[in-house]
Design brief:
By secondary structure, the chain is mostly helical. The protein is built from six helices and six strands, in the order ββββααββαααα.
Length: 201
């Protein structure tokens, strides 16, 4: 259906009094879209409010997407830092325990020993990098016997001493009471500690 041209003249309370009076088919709030409507948007308080509102509406989903994207990237980066620190800690434990028998079954040292946790890292997150909680362990005990924890618990006090063993138990109890969340600062601090211990070997 063919539209009839109308005069460029504001038709709302905020655009009333604006318009060039030229005939036009394409209008917004009664104003011609080519000249008067853009001028009203850019040069009047009501127009600026309208434009800012439109920009906010359009940009909100994009900002949400950017925040989500940044959050995902940060999580991936943190996961990479955790993995790197795990490798560094396990390497230190293997170096420290060279020549020592398996913490659980006592078989003589082998170069393929694992770094086995007494308190499992999946359950006691704050002890994941606690070197008193990690010791050289044969593959059978660590992987096939799920840590072989009964003899591990008997031999651990002899390995680190009663004082450190009791302190480790207290840290494990505290872990269950208070959730632990890793952040970059915590991980950087632990990395420095592990590097220091490695240099002291």
């Amino acid at each position: 259906m063919k539209q009839n041209p109308k005069k460029c003249k504001g038709t709302t309370s905020t655009t009333n009094g604006y318009g060039c009076g030229d005939l036009t088919i394409f209008r917004k709030y009664g104003l011609c879209k080519s000249k008067c409507y853009p001028n009203w948007l850019l040069n009047t308080p009501a127009g600026k409010n309208k434009m800012n509102s439109a920009i906010t509406t359009v940009s909100a989903p994009r900002k949400d997407l950017e925040r989500e994207s940044k959050s995902t990237k940060d999580r991936k980066k943190l996961g990479s830092v955790l993995s790197s620190l795990t490798n560094l800690t396990n390497k230190y434990v293997r170096m420290r325990d060279v020549g020592k028998s398996c913490i659980s079954c006592g078989i003589p040292y082998k170069s393929d020993f694992d770094a086995g946790h007494f308190y499992k890292a999946e359950l006691y997150t704050s002890l994941k990098f606690d070197v008193d909680n990690i010791h050289g362990q044969c593959i059978k005990c660590n992987r096939m016997l799920e840590g072989n924890l009964n003899p591990y618990s008997i031999n651990l006090p002899n390995r680190i001493g009663d004082v450190r063993y009791k302190a480790l138990i207290l840290r494990a109890e505290q872990d269950k009471k208070q959730s632990n969340k890793w952040d970059r600062l915590k991980l950087q601090t632990i990395r420095k500690q592990i590097n220091k211990l490695t240099k002291e070997l």
